[in-house]
Amino acid sequence: MRLPGFEYLNPQNLDQTLDMLAEHKDEAKILAGGTDLLVRMKKGLLAPKYIISLKALDSLSYIKDESDCIKIGTRTPIADIIASKPVQKHARALFQACEKIGAVSIQHYKGTIGGNILQNNRCHHYNQSDFYRSGRQACHKDGGKICYAREEADRCNSTCQSDGATALMALGAGLTLAGKDNKREVELANFYTTDGIMPFAMESQELLTEISIPKTNGESAYKRLAYRSAIDYPIVCAGVLLESDNSDKIVRARIVVGAMGRAPLLLANAASKLKGKDMNDQATFKDAATAAMSSAAAFAVHNVGSTLEYRCAMVEEMVLQALKEI
Amino acid sequence: MSDYNIIGKRMPRVDSRAKVMGKVRYSADIKLHGMLVGKIKRSPYAHARILSIDTSKAENLPGVKAVVTGKDTEGVKWGVFGYTRDQQFIQTDKARYIGDEVAGVAAVDEDTALKALDLIQVEYEQLPAVFEPMDAMASDSELIHEDFPNNINIHVNIDTGEVDENFKKAHYIREDTFTAPEESYFQAEPYAVVARFDEDECLEVWCPNGGPHMKSKPLSNSFKLPLHKVKIKKIAIGGAFGGRSEICPADYICALLAKKTSAPVKIIFTREENTIATRQGHAMITTHKTGVDKEGRVLARDTTCYMDGGAYSSTGPIATTVPFLSMEQAYRMESVRYNGYRVYTNKPIRGMIRVHGRGFACGLDTQLDMIAEHLGIDPVEMRLRNSRQPGEYTNTKSLVSSCAMDETIHKAVEKSGFKEKWGKLPPFHGIGIGTNSVQTGFPMGIRGGSQSFIKFNEDGEATVMTGVVDNGQGNDNMVVQIAAQELGLLPEDIHLVSADTETTSSDPGSYSQVSTFVGGQAVKNAASNCKKKLFDVAAKVLKVEPDTLKAENRLIFVKDDPEKSIPIKKVVRISLLNFNSVNAEGGYWPKVDMKREWVSNPYGQMCEAFSFGTTIVEVKVDPDTGEVEVLEVTASQDVGKALNPLVLEGQFEGSIAMGGQGGMLTEYHEWHEGRCVNPTMLDYKLPLACDMPKINNIIVESIEPKGPYGAKEAGMSIAMSAAQGYSAAVSNAIGVHMDSFPLTPDKILTAIKNKKQQDTAK
Amino acid sequence: MEKLQITLNINGKDQALLVQPNDTLLEVLRDELDLTGSKESCSEGICGSCTIQMDGKPVRSCLTLAMEAQGTKIKTVEGLANGDELSNLQQSFIDHGAVQCGICTPGMLMSADALLSETLNPDDTTIRQALSGNICRCTGYSKIVEAVAHAGKPEKSCPDCQTKE
Ligand SMILES: Cc1cc2nc3c(=O)[nH]c(=O)nc-3n(C[C@H](O)[C@H](O)[C@H](O)COP(=O)(O)OP(=O)(O)OC[C@H]3O[C@@H](n4cnc5c(N)ncnc54)[C@H](O)[C@@H]3O)c2cc1C
Ligand code: SF4
Ligand code: FES
Ligand code: FES
What we know:
The structure holds 3 protein chains of 3 kinds. By secondary structure, chain A is an alpha+beta fold. Chain A has 12 helices and 12 strands. Chain A is globular and about 60 Å long. Chain C has helices at about 25-30, 90-95, 105-120, 125-130, 140-150, and strands at about 5-10, 15-20, 50-55, 55-60, 75. Chains in contact: A-B, A-C, B-C. Chains A and C meet through helix 2 and helix 6 of A and strand 4 and helix 3 of C.
């Protein structure tokens, strides 16, 4: 399959990159590993006029183990994250999530963590070839006015299937975004819009530069379900974080469910079931998992494989398994 | 000790060296001077009348060399049989599925060709479309093909009589319905074709094919060229699994473009095109009604099967029959009635596939297990009581000469520890058995035998010419092994010229398991004729009778006195000095009942041999997610004779991956209004290395008297029985007999939940 | 579209090339350099048949721009053998019957070669994991896994290991 034509830009440093982004805005796309972007371009889902490559920006590839957080440059390959001792130790959910992305032998060396967070939402009515999408009306995400996944939907409900984002949200990660004249930080949990057409609350001239994962006394875990054990996006996944006090009482809990909505879902209600409970109280885990299921079920549509009923049922199971693993 | 020094040995394949070096050329790798890129415009509608096609804009685009539409085809229709001629290579009046060919372009490069496709303007009138066989039969809107009422493409009716009477005698009767959606071949090589007209106006074509001669005939008809002017060339092929057997419309379109432009043209399919516009397996709805006596022996069976045939006939009559044949070969039945309906729908074309009829076969085995459970018999005993025995006739009157079905069952049972495990495994842990049989080398009513020609060169090496094609399964090696064995040479002395319509004689092609049985046998006969000539000369030199001689390791020697010998090379030289070139031909035609016909007369000797396979599978099911972990698979097949165990094991293992792991757990197509939602292997779940279980291979040799060295076929009855073994194991693990395949986690989980509810209600 | 001049280091040799920005590395290898060993079976990063190595790491060349490959050391299946002399891994693939139709083979070899250069004695699970990004439709993987495990390390009990001295 051919890629559509574009002009290839190869900035040598961050400033140049930001200048280019500011100049070309919507007409430009960042190329990190390309494992998401280039597939979408081949399918004719987008045809940017400019491709701005991060190839020369080695300064965006790092994992820093700081006293209160781990900082990861967005161009860091997935393989480096898996190999990172600090990540394994302080951000196990991210390690577990990264291990599952695509296939070890391939995506991990090219695919980056920034690209993983910013990979576009997916839907099996949309992530198809030009030919597939011809001969029928365009859906919302494709520039039209209907949705094939949910009748009457006034917006796009494409699914965020990023493993990394789900784990990172559970870990309470924050993002750093840089524009030509500004730099801002945002919590990953607040980074999403409510429309699958453009799921990220970011400007076209912004670059995602850094991910920061706060270190806690807690432990995290990540579980996901797919039909195969590699080369398969999750159809449900869950990241959890639990922090307890000296007497094994849970003082802080985060439950995030992925692949069920337009963004990873931070489920405060489900998490609240755990607060103050004992770390070994399996019954509470079950309560929390059930609550997670009922919250998440409201968001999901049938657009990423298997059946909706099954995916909804599995929310409970994935959350439960993740909690039990801690 | 074996009589053979090459046959039966674990011999690495002759084609692998070039393959591991990346040097082998497949169709997409071909480059010819001045070659253009061809692309096909396809219908985006499932059912639509073509009102007009305007190609002018595309033709005016710089770089576009030709555009072809149905007008250029003179309306010729193609069909495997005279009575199924229903497919135009480029549609003129209407499109019948999303992907149907409506035009073709050739341009200087891919970007231009793609642009040109967009510039071709086709005006359609959309028609109501049907996507399910039941809906299609009941539909009162416009028929998909006007000559086929109720959209029924093929109806096969087989009735051996006394079915109703026998049901009356039965001790226990069950009727169950089983379903399975369509699956796909997913050959690793996406379809590609290169065509050109050479300076003598001969059409040369390179493309993956299940038999070059099966491609040249329709091309010669449609281009009105004599057969010798259509040259289908030898080329490496990246898998077939039954999906490369017929002519593909792209072959014709590519040749047409080459003709119009007077340049070579190459068309490479995208993965999506390979999925939707080559062939797929049939979706099936099968109802088996079975009556047994007290011992569980089948007295009567009444089977009805509805197959979703897609938009065109393809191998329709065969496809409608084969699931039934596999059943009647594997299991004895006192009486049987079969009604198979292949129904047109507005979905892609369907053809024969490695596991043809997983819903049918797995349904049958599931039902046997249900009956066994009712009677308190274990599944192994149930099969042994009904299994085919050598020397018997099938219900449709084919003699089964060699058959070691029972031995495949016994050996697999022993190796897998079935007896020790059955009924004793922990909860959600299960074991299951599947057995099946496939036809070896049936002529299909559309083609005959194979001929081979062998010539010796002065240096004592031999050139073997055969039409046998290698789709990836190792046929080239098979032919070389047979020739080397028979001629007394080493494999490296054999120069193979194969699968090329210009140089090799007709051959039935590499599907329906004919390659070894028919093609291999032809080579063996040619070699043996050639050897006779060598022996005549050698006998004179050695002053013995020719029938006392044997050839091996490049030598001809006296059997009882091996010291008395002469190098083959020398014999060839002597021959040539006496103006006698050493060459010979040989052929093989399967002896079957030529009056047997798929629809009009489905009785009589179907083919000469049948292979039998048993697969036992052990699984663990996660009761919380419905996920299946396959612990171990034991596969045993009666192959007749193992010509090369190394290659054979590879066929077994591949069969288990495709038939069992993929076919029964993860592979199926999903649809949305006639669109195939999962055309790539991202969403169509082919098994991966990390998901495949440990496999035990057991080769059983029954030595088929009519096969070359006793051989039948390799691996097909494993593919079939693997699907059955997998489904039986899962059913055993969860305590529910499943009736909808494949067994995906969602279905398994639902079954577990329902059972739990029922159990607590009790 | 205008073509750009680039240099790629392929199998140890620098190659000057004219490419378009939207040419993938796979297209350039196959169409410009006639290195057709790498296959395009899906074109979307799924199957692994286009796997090559960049600086020793397996990478899908169908999702790599030729422009992006500048400055790296690219190795393709054509670069595995030393002239006519096959690598242990290649020989092992032949001996163990790991090759059927051969379309997945180049990608498999490149993934396996990368594994073996990092891990001396990978066990079954490690090998299967390392090859999990390479789809084979023909073999069921058993023989491929065996071939990788025994590459250059003949097993006495294996009937297919070349024990020839
Ligand atoms: C076969 C296959 C299987 C896959 N399986 C999985 C899976 O299981 N789980 C999963 O999560 N993903 C999966 N992926 C998706 C993808 O490979 C990964 O998400 C990968 O991490 C993406 O990283 P990348 O660097 O290649 O992204 P790219 O494709 O380079 O970029 C993705 C998007 O992010 C933008 N972008 C990238 N970096 C920045 C930045 N710093 N600032 C601003 N914008 C940026 C790009 O413009 C683009 O829109 C799979 C992909 C393939 C082809
Ligand atoms: S969810 Fe609806 S609008 Fe969004 S991509 Fe899918 S079909 Fe289109
Ligand atoms: S062709 Fe590149 S991964 Fe399939
Ligand atoms: S050998 Fe055919 S795909 Fe692997």
